[in-house]
Amino acid sequence: MPLTPEMRRAGVTPELMNTTRRFNCPNCGKEFSLMQSRAIACRGCRYANTNCRFVRCPFCDVEFPIQQVITKNKYGEKYLAGYMNNILANYYKSVGKRNSR
Fold first, then answer.
1. Is the pTM here over 0.70, yes or no?
2. Mind listing the pLDDT tens digit for each residue in 46-80?
3. 1: Cβ–Cβ under 8 A, 6 or more apart, which residues?
4. CB-based contact 25:86 (threshold 8 Å)
5. If you ran DSSP here, which 8-state letter would residue 37 be given?
């Protein structure tokens, strides 16, 4: 889905669109987004705050590389992971929660 001018004015970026794009888990087949994975399944993982290049399914708890899902190289994996981490860190700071289980 291309970004519309209204989406750009609201602050939506291509990276945000990638993190909210839904896909199926290769293990259980259930659908989820990268943001949902990082916010729910990876919460409390000691590697979640270090730009981890993996995605964890919130349903079956299986981990697999982001590269299989969206990006084409390791630089893209690291950039996208860092982008998601920053969004979640800002959220937790604004609501007063710590990024742990």
1. no
2. 787 677 778 889 999 898 887 655 666 777 777 77
3. 17
4. no
5. I
